[in-house]
Amino acid sequence: MSGDNKTVRHFLDIDRLDGATLRRLLDHAVRIKADLKKDRLAHSTLLAGRSLALIFEKPSTRTRVSFEVGMQQFGGNVVVLKPDDMQLGRGETIGDTARVLSRFVDAVMVRTTGEERVHELAAHASIPIINGLTDQTHPCQIMADLMTFEEHRGPINGRTIAWIGDCNNVAVSWAHAAVRFGFELRLACPTVYGPSPELLAWAEREGSGRLVVTDSPEEAVRGAECVITDAWASMHNTDVDERAAILAPYQVNEALMAHAHPEALFMHCLPAHRNEEVTDGVIDGLHSVVWDEAENRLHAQKAILGWCMGVLD
Description:
- By secondary structure, this protein is an alpha/beta fold.
- The protein is built from twelve helices and nine strands.
- Strand 3 (107-111), helix 4 (115-124) and strand 4 (129-133) form a beta-alpha-beta unit.
- The radius of gyration is 19 Å and the shape is globular.
């Protein structure tokens, strides 16, 4: 519940961590999952006596359940805070909230709107801050996605992955991962919902991976070993009908998957709007790994929790 802010291990975004650290986190996640399958009490005291605050400014199913269960399986506790439970909406600054929580708990997971709110919290906290989702990025989800791909297909380095839809927060974190893990990410997006110039410039500057941008879903999935999509409207989008009309040609269906590698996996971070962005035949198909992907949120985030709190290297 204290520490030098300069040495605190935050998990803010994938682009803020080096590839070696991210690889260790994935390896920890795989080991934690394997150990849990053999012994339900594996690592059950790893975070005994530690507490995690969960701040939800946006609703959540998978994020809340996986973090709560993860802390319980590690022997720790959680405190769930919603906007109405806190003083943030009544004038307390994010910095003051960070300082107070640092005296009570051992880490904070925050699911909020702007990326800047997460970074401001981290700037003033003396405990680890974990980005549970913002409108701009979703790094915890992508750690689970990477783990899922490697479970089924081996190392992701050098592979080809296709993202279909708008370049939303999940896609941005996939782009960060492409650079850190060295694979090709093909982004098939309508021009109006394409990646930002800043993201492309960062990838070019950092780049061991490769980002390919196209407006053709067929071109993106051709030979790809994994096809990913997401709902056409996120929680913060109000132009739902307009987005649905523009993104309709980007539905992931059986005809589109026929252009991909014959063994291509299908991923979706869920919740899915069936027969909108993905058909039943694809999400329920033989190569869909969406349920493994959902489960791996638990294991990937347990690795993140252990690393942030200094019990895993």
